[in-house]
Amino acid sequence: MNTLSRRDFIARTAVASSTVALGGVGGLPGFSAEQWPPPIVVFSKVYQELKFDFEDSAALTAEAGMDGIDCTVRPGGEILPENVARDLPRYAALLKKRGLQLPLLTTAITSVASPHTEEILRTARGLGVQYYRLGSSNTQTDAPPGKQVQRIRAQLKDLATLNKEVGIGAVFQNHSPAGQSYVGGDLAELYDIVKDFDPAQVGVAFDIGHALVVHGDDWRRHFERLKSHLRVAYVKDVTRAGRWVPFGEGDVASTGYFKLLRELGYRAPISLHIEFDWAEGGKSRTRTALLKALKDSSRVLRRWLSTPS
After folding, report:
1. Are 207 and 175 in contact (CB under 8 A)?
2. Full-model pTM
3. What would the mean pLDDT of 83-96 be, rounded to a whole number?
4. Which residues are within 8 A (CB) of 191 and not within 5 positions of it... i.e. 6 or more apart?
5. What is the pLDDT of residues 239-261, one digit of tens each?
6. CA-to-CA distance for 300 and 102, rounded, in angstroms?
7. For 157, left (φ over 0), alpha (ψ -120 to 50), or beta?
8. What is the pLDDT of residue 242?
9. Which of 9-18, 95-104, 143-152 comes out lowest in average pLDDT?
10. Are 213 and 243 in contact (CB under 8 A)?
11. Which helix (H) or strand (E) holds 125?
12. Options 2.40.50.140, 3.30.460.10, 3.20.20.150, 1.10.3720.10; which CATH number does 36-306 get?
């Protein structure tokens, strides 16, 4: 065996510790704990616009040069919850054939009582999935202050126990209003929800775009409190006025977010979200147009990650 100097050992231990603290996925096949920039996976909701089957989705993901998929397993998703045991392994196998990964799921799960929760989590973990996004809850304007947060925390308590047993992590996404307000869209509220949970069981999927819309440049102050729970980064581009735009045309690049991720030792996959009008008002809703949107978006995102500012 090669021997390490004490200085090298301490340095490597420090890197590994920071990676574990931030939910790094060095144990995930194909993803290195020391990798930067991190892998990029596409949030597959956009594939549903063209009614892709699993083979179509895998083929386009590979052609676009992505590293994998953040798969929707929810009512109306790529995979329906009641079909997860049959369909998710088949999808994962098709991705694997093309050298792609399936590290993340997006679900409608809000508690252990959500339909098919345990079946989804155990199937996913058996395929190497490390994180799943929780379902969202709309803000109830007539609810007493803090009451919804208390209810959600109570639901997550049992879910955290199940997550620990299965060996998978839930992530709570911050989301800006879109016709309705979402619990946890305000980052101070999100902190109150997750702060007392072990981040290995209940963490945060931090969406810099939604954070910028809700908090403006004050997002950083809130992020400092949430960073211990950071598990997954969601990225889309947006203007400070709240308009979703193609990658490179908004204000996300100027936030300093990617430099911060690198300094924090972030190593989990980044989930790329296509929220802008990639089909030019529906005139070019074709596979070719979507492929171009994915290639252009991932190219810009990789540039941001390679030269973070």
Report:
1. yes
2. 0.89
3. 98
4. 222, 225, 226
5. 999 999 999 999 999 999 999 99
6. 22
7. alpha
8. 94
9. 9-18
10. no
11. helix 117-126
12. 3.20.20.150
